[in-house]
Amino acid sequence: MRITICLIVMLFALSGTAFADMKPVKSFEERKPTPYNGNQFGFVYGGALTENVKGKVNVHPISYELNGIKIAANVYTPADYDASKKYPAVTVAHPNGGVKEQVAGLFAQRLAELGYITVAADAAYQGESGGEPRHTDIPFFRTEDIHGMVDLLTIYPGVDINRIGMLGICGGGGYTLNAAKSEKRVKAVATLSMFNSGRVRREGYMSAQIKDVQERLKQASEARSAQIKGEILAAGTVDFDALTDEGIAKIANDLYREGMKYYGKTHRHPNSTFEYTRASLSELMMWDAADNVKLINVPLLMMAGSIADSLYMSEDAIEKASGTDDKELFLIPGAYHIQTYYVPEFVEQEVSKLKEFFGRTL
Fold this sequence. Notes:
18% strand, 9-stranded mixed sheet, two-stranded antiparallel ribbon, Rossmann fold, alpha/beta, disordered N terminus, 11 strands, single chain
C-alpha cells in the first residue's frame, strides 16, 4: 500500500501537478483574446461573433487556474444577459487536437443563442491554456478540464447551478462521458461524434492495430524515459502545409480524410494540431471512455453521423450506459464524423436536437 501511494505521488509530481494544487476553480479573470484571420476573438467557425453587441449574444474571454495550470476559456452569454437573473448552462469540450475557436465555439455560441450560458475552454497543455510538456493528452487531465468548467459555471454570475449540462465533441465527448460518471452537479449529458481516445490508441482506429499493442506500449514506456531526460517525443504529427487535395482524397477512413480537410484547410487554426506526446500513450492505452459508463444516471444524448466510420464507438457506449433509462443515440442521416462539426444542414439538425434535449432536461 505504501509503495502504491508513493508511485501515485511520483506520477503527479512528474506531471507537474501536486495534490495540494488539486482544488476547485474559485475565481476567474478577463483575458485578452488572440486575433486570427481577421476575427478579433480568433474564431474560425461559420457565423462566428466578430464583436460584442449590446442586447445580443456576447463572448467573454477569461482565464482561471485549474490544478496549478492557467486555463484559457470563452464564456458565451445569451442576448440581453442579466447577471441578476438565473440561466441554464452547458460546458462544451473540444475534440482531440481541436481548440475552443473551432467547433466547440460554434456549439457554445449556438446554445447561447438558445438562452444558455456556455463555456468552451482549451484543454490543459493545449491551445492557449498553460501546461508543459505541450500537447500532453492524459485522460486524468482531460477529464479534470471538464470538471473545471463545471467549477467555473458554479461561480459564474447568472448560472443556475441546478441546471448545468455537458456537451462533448469527438475526443471531448469521450472525456465528457468519463467526467459525467462522477460529476453529479450536472443534470444532462450530450455528445457529438464521440471518439473513445483510449480504445483507439490501444486497438487502433476501427481495431486496425490490435496486434501491435505490446510494441506501442513499449514505445510509450521508452518515450516516458526520454521525457524524464528532457526529450519530448511526439505522435500524430501532421505537416498541414504539405497537404494536397489529391493526398487527402486517398485517405480511406472518413474520419481522417475529412479531418485533414477541416483541421488543415477549411477551419485551420494555429493552436490546433493532431500532435500529442508519445508518453501520453502509457495512460491513454490503459483507459476507455466506455468503462463504467453505467455510472451515468442522468439523461444521455449521443449524436453521430449515420455513415461515419466512428459510429461504432457511440453505439458501444450507449449500449453500456445502463445507469439511465433516458438515453438516445440520434443519427444524422448521410453525415460523416467531421461533417457533423460544420456542414450547415447537419449542424441545424444537431442544434435542434440539443434544443429539445436540454430544454427538456435542464
